[in-house]
Amino acid sequence: MAKETMADNGRAGGDRKRSTGTRRGRRGRGTVVVAALLMPVGILAVPGPATATTTPSAVTCGSSSIPGDLSGGTYSSVTVAGECAVSAGQVVVTGNVTVDPGAALIAAFATDAKAPGTSGLTVDGDISVGSGGTLILGCEAAAFACFDDPNQNSPTLNSPATVKGSVTATDPLGVIVHLATIGGDAVQTGGGGGVSCTPTGVFADFHSPAYSDYEDNTIGGNLRITGLSTCWDGALRNRVGGSITFSDNTMADPDASEMLNNRAGGNLLCSDNSPAIQYGDSHASPNVVAGFATGECAFGVKQPSPTAVPGPGGSPAGPLTPISTPAPGVPGYWLTATDGGVFSFNVPFLGSQSGLADEPVVGMATVPGGLGYDLAGAGGVVYQHGTAATDCPGLTATLNKPIVGIAAAPGGNGCWTAAADGGVFAFGTNAPFYGSAGGLTLNQPIVGIAAAPGNDGYYLVASDGGVFAYGPGATFHGSMGGVHLNQPVVGMAVDPATGGYWLVARDGGIFSFDAPFLGSLGSTVLNQPVVGMAASATGTGYYLVASDGGVFAFGSGAEFQGSTGDLRLVKPVVGMSLG
Question: Which of 113, 209, 362, 434 is most buried, by the most CB atoms less than 10 A from its CB?
Answer without folding.
Answer: 209
